[in-house]
Specification:
The protein has 387 residues and is α+β, with helices and mostly antiparallel strands. It is built from 17 helices and seven strands. Strands 1-2-5-4-3 form a five-stranded mixed β-sheet, with helices on one face. A two-stranded antiparallel sheet has the order 6-7. Helix 2 packs parallel to helix 4. The radius of gyration is 21 Å and the shape is globular. 37% of the residues are buried.
């Protein structure tokens, strides 16, 4: 209830009633931190007397830190937008402060670890150079001065993390999912709108309906393991005009089961008002609720394989094409780590298929000595779910 937005008198009364029955406030704090919803919870609990002082202070401090980071991210986003625009590169900012402003009316109400920005694939190599010129570096501190390496990474990846000297992280995207065809029109930018960040400036982002479609797919791919993603969907959907809401529901009912699941979960958790009935298999809804409630645990290799298969059977029903769900089980024919170790021109990409196992062995021996490869692979594989 604390994550419902906008807050109403009815919502505030429900929050106060529920707070009076809480016996484990440390558990509440742990959930707030895990789901990264401190700004919303802080706004909801400000006048609730049942909240212990130490819990209130902890949530308030978390929310304040999130707001400070959001301000820095917003300022950086405007600078990055201007720098890319000077080069004629269309940059769309999403999942971060622009979404916070559009969905909640304030950048301070959404927690983000990084700045997500999308550019056309054809301009991604140039965009990497622009960010390096602004002082951003590859997350492992290695400069991507080799044009051949930049081109190879763009051909075989979907995004890249770069970090500034002050610690701000930018995740540059040229493709939004690893499954081609899942959101095909996003590869060309789709519909665009401009969001005002107040006195800081303005940035471009996707249109509202496209944002909702992406947020639904993103949530499915990450099993809705953070409640803030559903809070984003609910708040943004609530901001839409009646006609746009009807269009979203029509899309959910006809071609995009992931969007149907997202709205169903919002109805259950936030009492989001969706007039039309939505069809979402009960088993899939229950799976999502379990992932939201259960903290992720370290998995051994067999656990990861088991979960991957389990997820795939769930995902296959949440895509417009069921085969998209199985794409995540198929090993990529080219590893991004191989590209870093051995950047090749496009005409020699076929060599990666024969070099994958030898290069994997090299990484295994190197990892035992230094250990950076695992983090590097996660960064470039697009598996981060902290947006």
């Amino acid at each position: 209830m604390c994550c419902r937005w906008p807050q109403t008198e009815r919502t505030r009364a429900q929050v106060a009633h529920s707070a009076a029955r809480v016996s484990d406030w440390q558990g509440v704090l742990a959930r707030v931190q895990r789901h990264r919803v401190a700004p919303l919870v802080n706004a909801s609990l400000q006048t609730v007397a049942a909240v212990p002082d130490e819990i209130r202070r902890a949530i308030r401090a978390n929310a304040r830190a999130s707001a400070v980071l959001a301000l820095r991210q917003a300022e950086a986003s405007v600078r990055i937008s201007a720098a890319l625009d000077e080069r004629g590169i269309t940059a769309l900012f999403f999942k971060g402060t622009s979404l916070g402003q559009r969905a909640f009316g304030s950048i301070a109400l959404k927690t983000c670890r990084d700045i997500d920005v999308f550019v056309p694939r054809t301009r991604a190599v140039e965009a990497i150079g622009v960010l390096e010129g602004m002082g951003y570096r590859f997350v492992m501190t290695r400069q991507l001065s080799d044009a051949r390496l930049r081109s190879a990474l763009v051909r075989h990846g979907k995004d890249m993390e770069m970090i500034s000297e002050t610690g701000l992280i930018v995740e540059l995207h040229w493709q939004l999912t690893r499954v081609k065809g899942l959101l095909p029109e996003f590869d060309t930018g789709g519909r665009i709108q401009t969001i005002s960040l107040g006195a800081i400036g303005r940035v471009a982002t996707f249109g509202d309906i496209d944002l909702l479609r992406f947020l639904a797919v993103h949530g499915v791919l990450h099993n809705w393991s953070r409640l803030k993603w559903l809070a984003d969907v609910s708040a943004l959907y609530t901001q839409l005009s009646p006609d746009d809401r009807a269009d979203v529901v029509a899309i959910a009912q006809s071609t995009e089961p992931a969007l149907s699941q997202a709205l169903t979960l919002c109805q259950m958790l936030f009492d989001t008002q969706v007039k039309e009935p939505l069809a979402c298999p009960k088993a899939l809804t229950q799976l999502a609720l379990e992932r939201i409630e259960t903290p992720p645990l370290p998995l051994n290799r067999m656990d990861r394989y088991s979960r991957a298969f389990h997820n795939t059977f769930a995902w296959r029903k949440l895509y417009r094409n069921p085969l998209h769900g199985f794409a995540h089980l198929l090993p990529s024919s080219v590893s991004t780590l191989d590209v870093i170790m051995l950047p090749l021109p496009a005409k020699h990409d076929w060599i990666y298929r024969f070099m994958r196992f030898p290069l994997w062995l090299v990484r295994q021996f190197g990892r035992r000595a230094s250990g950076p490869g695992r983090s590097l692979g996660r960064t470039l594989s697009g598996r981060s779910c902290d947006g």
